Fold this protein.
Amino acid sequence: MAASSTPAHPWHWTADRDPGEGLLDRTFPSQGEAETWLGEFYPELRERGVRAVTLHEADRRVYGPMGLDPA
């Protein structure tokens, strides 16, 4: 059986700027977990100057850029 080339936790966020301290180095096993994490950490991302994020599944862009500024 061939090994899968898909990472075990392929979901991750990228941002319009680096927030530092490895904040976006996390990966997630599902889209839901990635979105839950963003819901908890977006205020900190905004404080660090991030204004938009993009969700990826491995190398595929799922959606974004999505603004973090309030409507």
Observations:
- Residues 31-47 form the longest helix (17 residues).
- Helices lie at 31-47.
- The CA atoms of residues 21 and 48 lie 10 Å apart.
